[in-house]
Design goal:
The protein is an alpha/beta fold. The chain has three domains: 40 residues, no CATH class; 112 residues, no CATH class; 136 residues, no CATH class. 25% of the residues lie in helices and 27% in strands. The protein has seven helices and 15 strands. The longest helix is centred in the first third of the chain and has 18 residues. It is globular, with a radius of gyration of 21 Å.
């Protein structure tokens, strides 16, 4: 009888994952609320079930593209793209097509940093290097900031594919040393300093802050913060996240103000974070708790050795205001933001 019940539960869970109608963090909270872990089940509960290489059905692939918002921040968004040979080129063409007049822009307020009318003339990938040839329209940027956003958007979008770690730009077949506003393109470009705030010298960390834009769309923004001589370790990143975004950045922290952490460490890929009381002292429902958990988990995702996180408060499993106990390991999420 137990096996029949368990099989039925698995089928129901698989149905939820296919239709994508449930927020993954809420699924986690509902699972925890539902009772004890069933015998034989893994003790790691997923924050998000999707993989960057998952084909959601026979024709679609969930792919991360890098859009810009109205304040010039690059924002990673996972979208469904029809599967085809040369999926990286299809992803780039989808990104370019989502201009300021697109359905994507009208519903989310996010749009492509690549100038409208740009065409992908060619794209080859070999030994981790993507060579992309864009039409002349790609150079129709209005400022140095827009030019840099265009370049970084393409680099980050293509390097989401595990076959790409560098991008060489060409324009109408030529490889210019620099673009009209000075962005250097003579050599291959890798991921670096997304949404950098502050100086460029010394060490840095990437943390995730929260925004709600004029369209009412909620999303997380990866931000590079300089740390000087403090280094770029996981504990430095978490402390920068708890300090909140720089004043005037237009960003928000999902975490309550003045929250402190007593200590942290990792074991077998699991990060253990021991907070002082206050991390989950907030007014509101589970959605607020979800934002706190996700901001921290996304920041930890920047450290490939970390695959999950345990939340503790004064050495004990964290408890949300709704009574939910976060006593299980939570996987770091695959996607920061999703658009369906």
């Amino acid at each position: 009888m137990y096996k029949r019940v368990l099989a039925g539960a698995i089928i129901i869970c698989m149905a939820f994952l296919v239709v994508g109608c449930e927020n993954p963090v809420r699924m986690l909270l509902n699972w925890i609320t539902g009772g004890e872990q069933a015998p034989g089940e893994p003790d790691t509960l997923p924050l998000q079930q999707e993989s960057a290489d998952t084909v959601s059905d026979a024709r679609m692939r969930e792919t991360v593209l890098y859009y810009r918002d109205s304040d010039g921040y690059l924002v990673p968004v996972s979208v469904d793209i029809e599967w085809e040979e040369g999926i990286a080129r299809a992803a780039l063409e989808r990104l370019i097509s989502d201009d300021e007049l697109s359905v994507m822009a009208q519903s989310t307020g996010l749009f492509s940093p690549v100038p409208a009318g740009t065409r992908v003339l060619g794209l080859t990938i070999r030994d981790g290097l993507a060579k992309v040839d864009l039409s002349q329209e790609a150079l129709d940027c209005a400022s140095a900031e827009e030019e840099e956003l265009m370049i970084k958007s393409v680099v980050y979008t293509l390097t989401e594919f595990n076959t790409v770690d560098r991008v060489q730009f060409m324009f109408e077949g030529d490889v210019p040393e620099s673009l009209p506003y000075g962005t250097r393109t003579g050599s291959p470009i890798s991921r670096e300093n997304i949404n950098r705030l502050g100086g460029t010298g010394g060490s840095s960390v990437t943390v995730y802050f929260h925004r709600v834009n004029e369209k009412g769309f909620e999303y997380f923004v990866p931000v590079t913060l300089g740390t000087g001589t403090a280094g770029s370790s996981m504990d430095v990143a978490i402390k920068c996240l708890l300090e909140g975004p720089p004043e005037g950045s237009g960003l928000q922290s999902a975490i309550p103000a003045d929250v402190k952490i007593n200590g942290m460490g990792t074991k077998n890929g699991i990060a253990y974070l021991n907070f002082e009381r206050g991390i989950f002292d907030y007014e509101g429902g589970d959605a607020v708790g979800e934002r706190i958990v996700k901001a921290i988990a996304l920041t930890l995702k920047e450290y490939p050795a970390v695959i999950g996180v345990v939340f503790l408060v004064d050495g004990q499993p964290a408890v949300l205001p709704t009574g939910v106990v976060l006593e299980s390991v939570i996987d770091v999420p695959v996607f920061a933001n999703q658009y369906k």
